[in-house]
Amino acid sequence: MVREENWEAFIGDTLFFAKVFIVALALIMDYYLALWYIVVFSVIYILTQQPAFQGLGTCSKLTPLQLEALLTEGNTSRFWLVEFGSSYLSACTRSSRCFPELSITYSNKSLSFGIVDLGLFPNAAEKFGIYLGGGMDQLPVYILFENATGIARFPGLDLEAKPSHPAITKRLISRYFELDLRLLEYVNGKW
User: Fold this and answer.
1) Contacts of 81 (CB under 8 A, 6+ apart)
2) What is the pLDDT of residue 76?
3) What is the distance between the alpha carbons of residues 160 and 4, in angstroms, rounded to a whole number?
4) Which of 40, 73, 111, 154 has the highest Cβ tally under 10 A?
């Protein structure tokens, strides 16, 4: 098993592997039992999704118009790191914990954090260069704006569709957007 960043993910992976083991055991005993097991847990999985993380953090939940106004007015932070996701996608729900935790560590007068739910505003995705053509499977997308201009984006704009992206972790986002460096520059008074 790959080392997980938090205990919830570790327990979730352990339970998933236990379910696979039970299916394999049920297949050995009786394949009808295995089929019923798969059907019952598929229904449970579909009907009971993990809720999005609602913990502490300094992330602003924004509409696309609010984000555009904040970026163009220029009287707020110099940098905005914005998560574009959807509250009903499991990939966005799994990664919803790391963004508020990053905002607690790195938020300052120069760097602010925002969240835009493209499930509620799918027409706004094109304005920010996010293509939702075949569905929302490329979400979440993180864009770092400097003075209303997107300067970094994760995952990048690839014309080729990739079957999967790396797991979103605090360490991955922090390294990709160089948040440690931006915090040090803020503390040292370079901004």
Assistant:
1) 102, 111, 112, 113, 114, 142, 143, 144, 145, 177, 179
2) 67
3) 28
4) 111
More confident residue, 157 or 162: 157
Stretch (H or E) spanning 60: strand 59-62
Dist CA 102 CA 58 (whole Å): 9
Q: Cβ–Cβ contacts within 10 Å for residue 155, how many?
A: 15
CA distances from 122 to 8, 21, 117, 136, 173 (A): 30, 39, 8, 9, 24
Q: What's the pLDDT score for residue 21?
A: 93
Phi, psi of 143, rounded to the nearest 5 degrees: -125, 130
**Which of 92, 100, 81, 189 shows the shortest CA–CA distance to 143?**
81
> What span, in angstroms and rounded, lies between the C-alpha atoms of 139 and 130?
9
* Pairwise CA distance, residues 45 & 16, whole Å: 11
Q: Which residue's entry shows tokens 């986002």?
A: 173
pLDDT for 36: 92
Return d(Cα 130, Cα 124) in angstroms, integer.
9
Q: Which amino acid is at 137?
A: D
